Amino acid sequence: MRKEKDCLENLSQFTEVHVVLGNEACDLDSMVSSLLHAFSIYKTLLSVPGKPAAIIPVFNIPKEDFCLRTEAVFLFRRYLLDSSFFIFVDDVDLENLLETGKLQLILVDHNILAKAQKHLDVAVFEILDHHKDQWPANLKVRKNIEPVGSCCTLVAEKLLALDLIDGQMSGLLLGTILLDTVNLDPRAGRATDRDRDIVKQLQEKFPLAINELYRSVSTAKFDVSALSTLDLLRKDYKALPTVENKDLCVGISSVSGLSLSDFFSRTLVHHSISEYCQASSLDVLIIMFLYFVENLDDPPSRQIAVCGPHEAAKSKIAEHLSTSGELKLKLNDERFQNCFVYDQDNIVASRKVVFPLVLDIIKNRF
């Protein structure tokens, strides 16, 4: 990481700058994927003569938001990574790199750029991801998009093939994959055979207590007691892309560790939701809740709230989500001011499922 930081400070020396960029929610999967995929690219390019190129992994959040990613803070400390060497989106001038023709953008853990970064899509030349493919068909890029439980599974496959993994990398990858797949629990419906195979391979090379690792990382993720309501809403947030001829701004916040009741019992919670919508120019904010009723050995529970100032759009999105059948939503018994709230019986449907579903509603129902 020290080398990447040195490259950042001397970008004028390079004719190409390869930026490995995770998604705007910047969860643990995005962070670890960007770091380790950048490492594999660096090692690969070392053996190829030609133009000097910088390879920079970038966390797609402001530096001040890193502390909100409690599971990432925990796992990086556990494996002795110095966060002072991390590169955040406000550390690098992507606009200048684009204008000077140096930017070579690699997307990890997403395949559609955030609204504020949409203009950078002309610089994208590679995608490594596990979400539904929504990349524009007219833009030709090298894509590896596979429906696995964690993007880190795809990163690990490449690192193992190149024989580049050490114990530190293995721990980071395992911690992330186990968190994303709920410890490979089949009841959660997140893990695939490829995820299980990678965990097995990593375990064989660098044995560790995976149940303890999963519990430790999960405990760190679900401990949100020190976060304000605004922090919870921006901790794991994704804005839906702008749809042509649709003047509607929608975003999805994922809140881990709290139920609907816990969240809405917070002091001035509706004021915080309104404040967040106003600051983010949102018409509709969808909040997805993931929590464990008893303990981490049980399958998780999910709930959804559809909030925001645009009453008609909020009502229409809530109606279509509740009748789509894919999420298996049931109207929650409680009522919270100005929000539609549901219990979600399909616990497999994470934001990875809800995001394209909402995007389709905006495209075809408005």
UniProtKB/TrEMBL annotation:
GO terms for cellular component: cytoplasm. Transmembrane segments: none annotated. SUPFAM superfamilies: DHH phosphoesterases. Residues 214-362 form the DHHA2 domain. Its cofactor is Mn(2+). Keywords: Hydrolase, Manganese, Metal-binding. One of its GO terms (molecular function) is exopolyphosphatase activity. The keyword Manganese applies. Belongs to the PPase class C family. Prune subfamily. This is Protein prune-like. The gene is PRUNE.
